[in-house]
Specification:
12 helices
């Protein structure tokens, strides 16, 4: 019924959604401690695949790799914090601003021209954030700021990855996330350590496992389907967030907050549509040149 690429992105969305739930259930564990466990799992897996593929672990563009690892660490710390301190659907929706920040930041990092429509999308998205925050007393200004920082840092990390794609292997780029994160968060984690129960350890392990499965299926999906199609389907994660938030955590979403969520998703989907049309126009122009 579905193509393999579609099945993979849906599986990826399910795994990431379950990871979000695991983090939410660990509200009594500091987010930095969860990130420490998560980076430990990723570090071990990354070392295994680097050895298996006989790759040099430290890459070619060390400083840019370190910068990507650092902003990736900030993004994950902030995202896990927002999952713990905001309604699940709101935290996930704000993280979906990452592609918008990616486009805007590409102006300064990659020197790519950005059309006015991208700035319009950013403005509409931020208006949606205001509606979510302004009409939901469960969201503090601090938690909202941390959530926005998570999306901003993710956008920054994506731009660094794009700069690195022609210089270093993807496995090396992934390796630098735990390579930077693990030693940085370790001293912070020690000061905030909360002894986990066996149940907590199980959830912490699941965070690493489900994230790994999510990344694997996400990568496979992007290899088989157009990016614009994959990006659109990934927003099914919001439906999971709403369902899990309501049935597992008793989180109801007010009418105005729901409108804000739909405003953000609509703006980002519109941005994806514009990019898809631009790619189609470019492809048709190239085909026309090839015929002449």
């Amino acid at each position: 019924m579905f193509s393999p690429g579609v099945r993979y992105i849906l599986l990826s969305t399910v795994f990431f959604s379950i990871m979000n739930v695991c983090v939410k259930y660990l509200e009594h564990i500091p987010s930095v401690q969860i990130v420490w466990f998560r980076s430990l799992v990723t570090l071990l897996i990354s070392i295994y695949f680097l050895r298996k593929n006989h790759l040099k672990p430290f890459g070619n563009n060390t400083w840019l790799l370190l910068a990507r690892g650092a902003v990736g660490a900030v993004a994950l710390l902030c995202y896990f914090y927002s999952l713990q301190h905001m309604p699940l659907a709101s935290a996930v929706t704000i993280q979906y601003l990452a592609p918008v920040f990616t486009v805007v930041l590409s102006v300064f990092i990659l020197k790519e021209p950005v059309k006015w429509v991208s700035w319009l999308v950013l403005g509409i998205s931020l208006a949606g954030v205001f509606l979510i925050k302004g009409f939901d007393p469960r969201i503090s200004n601090y938690a909202l700021g941390v959530g926005l920082l998570a999306a901003f840092s993710s956008g920054l990390a994506y731009n660094f990855v794009r700069k690195l794609k022609d210089h270093d292997d993807p496995l090396v780029i992934v390796f630098y996330f735990p390579l930077v994160t693990f030693p940085v968060v370790t001293p912070i984690m020690i000061g905030k350590w909360v002894p986990p129960t066996l149940y907590d350890l199980g959830l912490l392990l699941l965070v690493g496992i489900f994230t790994q499965f999510g990344q694997v299926y996400l990568t496979r999906a992007y290899m088989l389907e157009p990016a614009s199609k994959i990006a659109g389907l990934s927003y099914a994660g919001l439906l999971f967030a709403m369902g899990f938030g309501y049935f597992l955590f008793g989180e109801e979403i007010g009418t105005v907050s729901m409108f804000g969520i739909m405003l953000i998703i609509g703006a980002v989907m519109f941005s994806i549509y514009i990019d898809q049309q631009k790619m189609k126009t470019t492809r048709e122009a190239n085909e026309q040149v090839g015929k002449t």
